[in-house]
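User: I've been trying to design a sequence by hand for this structure and keep getting stuck. Would you show me what you'd pick, starting by listing the structure so we're on the same page?

Assistant: Good idea, let's start from the same input. This is the structure you sent:
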């Protein structure tokens, strides 16, 4: 219970709160240990990597909004490696060239019967490269989306 006069925690409440906090920061806390190791690693290699990566042109990486793509770890790595993250608008597969590629491949693949898995895989690989080489999904995408964000 709080001390009503000056709205402070009682000794028991404070001890309980400190105990909970110390458990979070325990040396046995694997998540915290991993995070600390990661931070130390970043600090040790960051400047050396930056020297090499900043002499190269910036690499632009296009990502959807999957939560893993937006973690602090990814952002730090990309900053160190001189990479620019470009996030597609949420719920817009039409702006993702690979989605258009898959859609077109599926159209070809489901039109033909294959009597074994190996033939299906072979046909899919052929179809994929045909679609990638013949269709201009990337060109369309770079004209309609990429120019707007760069």
């Amino acid at each position: 219970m709080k001390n009503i006069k000056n709205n402070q925690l009682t000794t028991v409440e404070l001890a309980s709160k400190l105990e909970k906090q110390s458990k979070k920061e325990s040396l046995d806390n694997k998540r915290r240990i991993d995070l600390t190791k990661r931070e130390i690693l970043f600090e040790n290699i960051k400047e050396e990597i930056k020297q090499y990566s900043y002499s190269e042109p910036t690499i632009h990486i296009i990502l959807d909004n999957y939560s893993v793509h937006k973690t602090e770890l990814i952002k730090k790595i990309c900053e160190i490696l001189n990479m620019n993250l470009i996030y597609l608008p949420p719920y817009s597969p039409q702006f993702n060239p690979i989605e258009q590629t898959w859609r077109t491949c599926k159209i070809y693949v489901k039109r033909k019967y294959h009597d074994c898995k190996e033939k299906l895989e072979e046909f899919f690989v052929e179809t994929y490269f045909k679609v990638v080489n013949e269709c201009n999904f990337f060109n369309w995408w770079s004209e309609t989306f990429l120019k707007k964000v760069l």
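That's my pick for every position. To get oriented when you compare it with your attempt: The first strand starts at residue 2 and ends at 3. The helical segments are 11-24, 30-53, 72-80, 97-110, 117-134, 137-149.
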